[in-house]
Each structure stands twice: as C-alpha cells, then as structure tokens.
Design brief:
5 strands; five-stranded parallel beta sheet; alpha/beta; Rossmann fold; 12% strand
Length: 208
C-alpha cells in the first residue's frame, strides 16, 4: 500500500467536525488504497516543523509527502523571513527526495478577519514554494491560486473558527481533491500504475 505523509501546520491538522483530521480523512475516502498519515501540528512554522521532521516524516518511510506551510511563517507575530522559509522548504524537499515531495502553496485568507496575515504576503510565500519546486524538481500544487482565483473564495474559508484562515468542509474538499488528483497524476505516469488509479483518474477527468 502506498503511504503518504501529510506534513504541515493547522491547515493539515484540524478536524473541522470530522472524526479525524479533515485533510487525511477526506483523502482516505477519495483514495482508499492509500495509507495517509497526518503529520500536521497547529501553530507550526517551518522552523518548528524542521525539529520534528525526522520523527514525524522520515521515520514513517513514506512513498510521498505533502508539504504545506506558510500560513504561520508569514504571520507578522511569528515571521519566518522568505530566505529562511525557502531554505527550510528546500531542506524538506531534498531530504524526502523531489520525486516523493508534493509542495503545496499556502491558502489565501479573508483579510477582513485577519490582522496578522495578508494575501500580498502569502503570495510571496507561494512564489517561494513554486521556486523550490522548480529548482528541486518536486511536484507542486498551487493551492493559493486555485482558491484565490475563485470569486467565492471567502466562502471557502468559512469554518468552525470562522477566522478567515481555518477553513471548513468546502476548503478541505478543494484541497483533498487537488492532492488526490496530483497523486493519481503521478501514479498514472509511473510504469507500475494500478487499475484503481486508472479508474479514479478517469473519474476525476470526467468531473472537471
């Protein structure tokens, strides 16, 4: 069974009313032949996450790792500057291995609820994540643009906390779809792709 570790902050860790963390809960429903491990810790920046990286990610011997940080790194009260953020994301990608790494840009925020985060700043962190993906050859999901480009993106950010940052069901549906599609895309290009991946891949194509 393919093992995927989802490594991140509260966006990865929150349950939002689900029996377990929403992201991996939804992913397990979409891709039941995968083993998803949640390695999200609320409040983490990349500086804090790097301290638990070996135990929470590498020790699990994953086939793939999603890496989603930036929401806290960009916050004014715990700022991790862009240079250090890039260094940390690059470290994650190189240690995991680019072919196994799925880098994800941070989501936008509803600025009417957020005093410490702006979409202008988050776009800068998104640019860094994309640059690292290009420079290392890692897989990449532009979650920021996928959400921010929608006219109703603020509705996607509504969640239990309703703080303009921690989204609920709609946001997790979008994020889990993006990750599931990326995993299917990767495996469809793999010579040992399975029948189930083919079938699910065709399903997602029809849904587009």
């Amino acid at each position: 069974m393919t093992t995927v570790v989802c490594f991140g902050d509260s966006i990865t860790a929150r349950k939002e009313g689900n029996p377990s963390p929403a992201l991996t809960y939804k992913l397990a429903q979409k891709l039941p032949n995968y083993n998803f491990i949640n390695a999200g810790v609320s409040g983490n920046t990349t500086e804090q996450a790097i301290e638990r990286f070996a135990a929470d990610v590498i020790a699990k011997k994953p086939d793939y790792v999603t890496v989603l940080f930036g929401s806290n790194d960009s916050a004014t009260y715990r700022l991790v500057d862009l240079e250090l953020f890039k260094r940390n994301i690059t470290t994650f990608a190189k240690v995991i291995g680019p072919s196994k790494t799925i880098l994800i840009s941070p989501p936008p925020v509803d600025e009417s609820f957020q005093e410490n985060r702006t979409n202008e700043s988050l776009l800068q962190y998104t640019t860094v994540v994309r640059e690292v993906a290009e420079e290392t050859g890692s897989h990449y999901i532009d979650f920021f643009t996928a959400m921010y480009s929608r006219e109703d993106y603020k509705e996607l950010l509504v969640g239990e906390k309703n703080d303009g940052l921690h989204f609920g069901e709609a946001g997790y549906d979008m994020l889990s779809d993006l990750i599931a599609q990326k995993l299917i895309e990767i495996n469809l290009n793999h010579p040992k792709k399975g029948l189930l991946e083919k079938v699910i891949g065709l399903f997602f194509e029809k849904e587009k």
